[in-house]
Amino acid sequence: MNIKSLLLGSAAALAAVSGAHAADAIVAAEPEPLEYVRICDAYGAGYFFIPGTETCLKIGGRVRSEGEWYDAYNPNSKVGTLWHTRAELSLDTATDTEYGPLKTNTVFRWDWNDGGATSTKLLFANISLGGFTVGKLDSQYNLYVGYAGDVINDDVIYDGPYELNQLTYNYDAGNGFTAVVSLEDSNSASDGSASYGSSWWTDDKSNHYAPDVVAGLGFKSGAWGVKVVGGYDSIVEEGAVKVRVDADFGVFSAFLMGGYNTDGDKLNKYAGTNLDRSACPVDDASKCGWGDWAVWGGGSVPINDKLKWNIQLAYTDSKIFAATTNLTWNPVKNLTLRPEVSYTNFDSVNQDQWAGIMRFERSF
After folding, report:
1. Closest by alpha carbon to 262, among 232, 283, 286?
2. Cα separation of 65 and 68, whole Å?
3. Residue 197, domain member (yes or no)
4. Are 141 and 214 within 8 A, CB to CB?
5. What is the pLDDT of residue 75?
6. Is residue 274 part of a domain?
7. CA-to-CA distance for 258 and 241, rounded, in angstroms?
8. I want to staple 273 with a disulfide (CB 3.0 to 4.6 A). Which of 12, 125, 226, 288 is the partner?
9. On the CB side of 192, how many CA atoms lie within 13 Å of its CA?
């Protein structure tokens, strides 16, 4: 075989191989377009559009662990140390409509206490549109005025009910004037405040025939704000009124709140008690309530951008005194360490109690 024949044969072989590969060539499909998550900042930080919809979603929550020493709510408590851990997951949605934002708020809570299994709770679940809110959240008697002080044991002196079902309308004039009116379920509350009835001790709910009613007015201008709120307990057929004044001067903030009970000899949902039943006289449970009136006051002093000192004092006509102070330290963003100490004097039953808490909390 000469060189010419060898070259022609090699060229033919290469052509055949190239032709076979060309016939078997695979053409890659065009990549499908991806829909990236879009930020939805119209409703605040953390919201994003659910892909393929016009609904915005925000996911948040917190994890908390704390050690407790004795119980500020019970002078008979002999528990030396109790360790408590909690997790919460919150889901918020918002969609723009011709009547304003259509929103939902849902919060799930899980608690673990020493010696007991984890408990699960639907803490909040509500829908809001055009100023109206329906579903489960804290009573407007507390929520509207801003609860009490910035301490953990802020309600040793009872300041009102928390979780319950309600139909609420909030009004904001945009000039500092606000108002609220709420119909609240007289038979739903997680803290026992719905069970006073005609006798706190028998849990009598036989008079459950109508919702409770809460109404409030408020005005804020500059550093000052004032709110008044009243609640009527349809089972007990009594109620209470609270007035709160707030002032924020930058270097410190302070509040003063007073409450009036329409019948100091009775407990009702809006002037009741958070104290343990074992601490109260069986024949006169009202000694653990306000009596005719109650007063709360306190303040917060920022020490630097990461550390703040808080204090709250409270006293009742039934001669119960409560004092709590703590430090709130944020060593890094979204992490809070809070040591707190409380003292309660139950003059009506001639007892007192010291208690402490060390809390660690990470929010997101």
Report:
1. 232
2. 10
3. yes
4. yes
5. 79
6. yes
7. 8
8. 288
9. 13
Question: Looking at residue 14, what is its pLDDT?
Answer: 45
Decide if pLDDT at 25 tops 50: yes
| CA–CA gap between residue 335 and residue 328 (Å, rounded) | 10
The domain of 326 spans 60-363
Give the angle subtended at the CA of 344 by the CAs of 342 and 348, to the nearest 5°.
175
φ/ψ (deg, to 5) at 206: -65, -20
pLDDT in tens, 275-286: 877 667 655 666
The answer to whether residue 284 is domain-embedded is yes
Domain with residue 166: its CATH number is 2.40.160.10
Cβ atoms within 10 Å, residue 254: 16
Token look-up 């549109």 returns: 129
Computed over its alpha carbons, how large is the radius of gyration of the chain? 30
Count CB atoms within 10 A of the CB of residue 46. 15
258: left (phi over 0), alpha (psi -120 to 50) or beta: beta
Into how many domains does the chain fold?
1
Residue 224 token pair: 């000052």
Closest CA to 358 of 77, 70, 61: 70
Which of 147, 151, 233, 229 shows the shortest CA–CA distance to 189?
A: 233
